[in-house]
Design a protein that fits this description.
Helix 15 crosses helix 21 and helix 27 runs antiparallel to helix 28. The chain is of the alpha/beta class and 784 residues long. It has 28 helices and 26 strands.
């Protein structure tokens, strides 16, 4: 069809009507190409043109014919505008005042109606307000609004009403109004509207989302629903994102990097990955990966597990992964965070380690499995089954030992619980303290080896400004390992402390603008990370780092002998290095199968710490945090609240207490971990109050350096644990122990206090209705 023929057939009235625009009595309309409260566009029906008199309009000074009008309205090329004009002609009889024909197909009619709804947004404040609240930009996505007025003023057009009833947009109430005309109910009234399309990109269905807060249903689909949102994916699609809801999918369509690199399909809820969608996916011969972006609630996670099994049966060579969101769904995440965060989460998406042969979808209140000793020789060992066993911490600790971390059972488990907290909103941190050469760096490095390595960052040193120079989300859900905290300068320590406390660093930086001029800018680095740091003076840093646990390396002769025996067995070929690597790889799989949950501890108000504990407020918070981490680790055995929160059980409290016990004792003791170990060895060596000693003999007996010895003795003298009793500088100063504390008795008292408290919780659980003679807090306090 020639352009002249198009212009002769297609009137400006047809075009305005197609776009839902209506001129007033003076033939003026509010210009659709700029913000226009007073009609500034004049329509000339004799010349079939329109002209905007506002200087704010991009079309000002130009008289537009029908093709020009379409070009600006669609924001397209002239060639595309001509094709659109032909399309409009196909839906319009030039000799009729309306654009509806008796022979319109369902697809043609719905296409016309969706275009009408799209144009209605321009003059609808409720629609614009709702879209803004949901973070949706109607200039970037195809979205409409149904105010319920589309059939008003067209009551004489019986064909429009007939077709609207046929597809479900109008509902015949069977009653007649005062004017004698029939009354109709409008489907999806006061709702934003999205189009579902078929393979030919025709509109075959409409989805409505109510903008009313009191609407109980909220979601509406036309009857005989067909089609896919936003449409069938391109044939050459390699990466496909599946969302749970249409609004989530629309939110992602607004991000250029997503549109350019991925295809998207919205499922129709957790049960909405239907046959049409599956068949459309099957047609993608170049598909490499399917990525789930479902809600983070239990229904969403269950749906991902279910559909993963379905897809794995259909696609044997396609990778399946999932994006873990910090909020409930995609739309909420993008409302509360910058789109850069979602792109970072997408980049860090996790493979789903599921197959129909080895995974059973976890039920909400799944019974724990029988305890099994892990066997890394069995290549079919299932991570989900392992996480679901009753004595998980015990089995996991055995597996950690197989990975090469010898001894220090409680410390290594505590460090493991701390390091996996990077998956949660409030990560924890540990300072591993020990003398030089004690193995503190070794243990934090080996614990870090058990984590997915793409999440681990290892530093020997951190400069003053380096933390400020990371990208905004480079440290989101990361693990930081600092091998020598003592080597950091004060500015670097300050930045680290701020980062740990607030999870964000802000700095003022100088950048060059497009013209090369310097200008100030605000730089933000966000960090949800856990950290392990090695230090010789842990208590110095611990005072300034919130949520930091102090863990002392075991420097006893017994631990040294355990390590030597392991080294000897390894060198003798008695330890298979392949088995060690298998254990490490399996633990990494376990971590990848942990999903973020909030934790609720119903026993939290009944837990107390001994009054002798120093800094009891901080330790209490840490105690509760470790209990939550144990619950988090036991997630495949725990029940969930209706809000999808894991519920702590008494068993979690008992396990956390056992793991954290040494740290609690450290908080009671005024001596730090390595100093306490030295002092206990010293008391064993000296044996009684009368015996004195010189430093040389102690240094040789304990095999420690002169520098370390000097630090220990200086601190013990300052705290009045030992005193100088004679001797000479050239022959050696003699010392005696002046304070013989009963450390073992203190440990026993604390252990009894905590265990009796847990026993009280168990008794309450067994017989909650029986009257109690004493309050739990009274019982446990009397025991210390």
């Amino acid at each position: 069809m020639e352009i002249s023929e198009i212009k002769s057939l297609l009137t400006i009235a047809n075009v305005l009507h197609y776009y839902g625009l209506k001129a007033d009595k003076t033939n003026r309309i509010c210009c659709p190409f700029h913000e226009d409260k007073t009609p500034s566009m004049q329509v000339y029906y004799k010349t079939q043109t329109a002209y905007c008199f506002s200087s704010n309009c991009k079309t000002h000074g130009k008289s537009m014919d029908v093709i020009d009008f379409i070009l600006h309205k669609e924001n397209c090329t002239k060639h595309e505008a001509i094709k659109k004009a032909v399309e409009i002609l196909g839906h319009t009889e030039p000799n009729r005042k309306d654009r509806y024909q008796k022979d319109l197909t369902r697809e043609q009619f719905l296409t016309n109606m969706f275009q009408y709804f799209r144009n209605a947004i321009n003059n609808s404040k409720p629609a614009k307000d709702y879209l803004q609240k949901r973070g949706l930009d109607y200039t970037k996505i195809e979205v409409g609004y149904n105010s319920g007025q589309f059939h008003h003023g067209s009551r004489r057009d019986e064909q429009l009403i007939k077709q609207a009833i046929a597809c479900g947009l109008l509902i015949d109430k069977g009653i007649t109004g005062r004017t004698g005309e029939k009354a109709y109910g409008v489907f999806g009234k006061w709702s934003i509207c999205f189009a579902l399309r078929n393979r030919e990109n025709e509109v075959t269905g409409l989805y409505f989302r109510s903008t009313l807060n009191d609407d109980k249903h909220k979601h509406y689909y036309l009857k005989d629903r067909k089609g896919i949102y936003p449409g069938y994916p391109k044939k050459d699609t390699k990466k496909l994102i599946l969302t749970e809801a249409i609004i989530d999918c629309a939110s992602l369509l607004q991000i250029p990097q997503i549109r350019e690199n991925y295809s998207l399909i919205s499922c129709f809820g957790t049960n909405g990955l239907n046959e049409e969608i599956l068949n459309a996916i099957k047609e993608l011969k170049q598909l490499e990966e399917i990525i789930f972006c479902f809600d983070q609630d239990e229904a969403g996670k269950t749906a991902v597990e279910k559909y993963t099994n379905v897809l794995m049966e259909q696609f044997t060579n396609v990778k399946i992964s999932s994006v873990e969101l910090p909020n409930n769904d995609v739309n909420e995440t993008l409302q509360l965070h910058d789109e850069k965060l979602f792109l970072e989460l997408l980049k860090k998406r996790k493979d789903i380690f599921l197959s129909t042969e080895e995974i059973e979808p976890r039920q909400k209140n799944q019974e724990p499995r029988e305890t099994q000793t892990p066997n890394t020789k069995n290549e079919t060992l299932n991570p989900i089954d392992f996480l679901g066993q009753k004595d998980l911490l015990k089995s996991l600790n055995q597996l950690i030992e197989k990975s090469g971390i010898i001894g220090e059972e409680n410390s290594r488990m505590l460090l493991f619980l701390i390091i996996i907290s990077y998956l949660n909103k409030n990560p924890l941190h540990a300072l591993v303290q020990g003398s030089s050469g004690s193995g503190k760096t070794h243990i934090i490095s080996r614990i870090a080896d058990l984590m997915p390595q793409e999440d681990v960052l290892r530093f020997t040193r951190i400069t003053e400004s380096s933390l400020y120079n990371w990208g905004e989300f480079d440290l989101y859900r990361k693990i930081i390992i600092i091998e020598d905290l003592d080597g950091l300068k004060e500015d670097a320590l300050y930045a680290l402390r701020e980062f740990i406390s607030n999870q964000v660093l802000r700095s003022s930086v100088t950048i060059k603008d497009k013209k090369g001029n310097n200008k100030s800018s605000h730089k933000i680095v966000k960090g949800q990370f856990s950290s392990l740091s090695a230090t010789t003076k842990g208590e110095t840093y611990e005072d300034n780092m919130s949520r930091s646990f102090l863990v002392a390396v075991d420097e006893s002769k017994e631990q040294t002998q355990r390590i030597i025996n392991y080294q000897n067995r390894r060198n003798a070929g008695e330890i298979d290095p392949n088995e060690q690597q298998k254990a490490i790889g399996f633990i990494q799989k376990l971590v990848r199968n942990l999903k973020y949950y909030e934790v609720i501890n119903p026993y939290a108000t009944k837990l107390n710490l001994p009054e002798k504990v120093h800094k009891i407020r901080r330790l209490n918070e840490m105690y509760q945090a470790v209990i939550k981490q144990v619950t988090f680790l036991n997630q495949h055995q725990r029940k969930l609240t209706k809000d999808n929160q894991l519920i702590t059980e008494i068993e979690d409290i008992e396990q956390a207490t056992e793991v954290l016990f040494e740290s609690i004792v450290l908080k009671v003791d005024e001596l730090d971990g390595s100093l306490r170990q030295f002092y206990e060895r010293l008391k064993k060596y000296v044996k009684n109050e009368k015996q004195d000693f010189v430093l040389r003999e102690i240094r040789q007996e304990f095999n420690i350096s002169k520098t370390q010895m000097f630090r220990y003795v200086q601190t013990l003298v300052e705290l009045d644990y030992i005193k100088q009793v004679g001797g000479f500088a050239n022959k050696g100063i003699r010392y005696k122990i002046s304070y013989w504390d009963n450390y073992q008795k203190l440990r026993t008292e604390i252990k009894d206090f905590l265990m009796l408290q847990i026993q009280g919780l168990k008794q309450e659980q067994i017989a909650p209705s029986k009257p109690k003679n004493k309050k739990l807090s009274t019982i446990v306090n009397e025991s210390v």
